[in-house]
Every structure is written in structure tokens, then in C-alpha cells.
Amino acid sequence: MTRQRQEVYRILMQEPDHPTANDVFMRVKDRLPNISLATVYNCLEALVQHNIIRQVNFERGPSRYCSNLQEHGHFHDSVTGSILDVHFKPGVNPADFLDLPPGALVDEIEITVSGKIAAQPNA
Ligand SMILES: [Zn+2]
Questions:
Q1: What is the pLDDT of residues 52-96, one digit of tens each?
Q2: How many domains does the chain have?
Q3: Structural domain boundaries enclosing 10
Q4: 57 CA to middle of ligand 1, Å?
Q5: For residues 43 and 53, what is the distance between their CA atoms, to the nearest angstrom?
Q6: How close is the Cα of 84 to the center of ligand 1, in Å?
Q7: Burial label, 11 (beta-carbon count in 10 A; 0-12, 13-18, 19+)
């Protein structure tokens, strides 16, 4: 792994907030002042190709990057714009609630839920 890729990966591990390439570029410039946005894109692409990070796309938005390799979905908060990892409840097979074509073998499931988070009553 090149120094640049390491730094890009470090940024993604640091804050699991699903940054865009531009966000990563802004954050990595502290450590690598001469890095270009194109290089950041190349680093992200290489990390995705090697299954070290995941690329996540939400409608209308630029690609975002996720360092969580566990099987999980995403909750997109439409008010704040933040994207949170959501995990499947224990024992739940996410394919079970989809009416898949007969014989379908699932390789990968991508789940994105959009909405807002209502204020929680104080527990
Ligand atoms: Zn994620």
C-alpha cells in the first residue's frame, strides 16, 4: 500500500461518517498537502477494488465511502444528511423478507433506508 492510500484509509477509519471523495480530499490535505483530488479518487478506487472499503451510492448524491466491511445497511437522515450504519438484527437473514425469483442465490444485499429521526422521549 502506498503512503497516499494509507492516509486515505486512515481518514476513512478515523470518522465512520461515509465521506465523499471531496470530504476525504479536504481531510487528507493536512497530512499530504500536495495530494490532488484525482489522486484521492484513484486511492479510493484502489481501496474499493481490493475490498478494503466499500463505495456507497445514494440517489442524487456523489459516491460515499464506508470502512465498515461487516454486512450492514445504511440509514440516510434526510434532515441532517448524515448516513449511519445499520446492522441486521441477530438471526435475521435479510433475503428472507424479499420475494426473490425462484432459485435466486444472493451474493450481496445493499439496503438503504431514508427518513428522519424523531426526537426520542427521555428514558
Ligand atoms: Zn456503512
A1: 999 998 878 899 999 998 889 999 998 988 899 999 899 888 778
A2: 2
A3: 3-66
A4: 11
A5: 11
A6: 7
A7: buried
Per the prediction, the chain carries an average pLDDT of 91
Tell me the three cell numbers of residue 35. 495530494
Ligand 1 center to 64 CA (angstroms): 9
How far apart are alpha carbons 100 and 119 in whole angstroms?
35
Whether residue 93 is contained in a domain is answered as yes
Q: Are residues 77 and 46 in the same domain?
A: no
| The residue type at 61 | G
User: Backbone phi, then psi, for 17, in 5-degree steps?
Assistant: -105, 15
Decide: 8 and 44 in contact? Cβ < 8 Å: yes
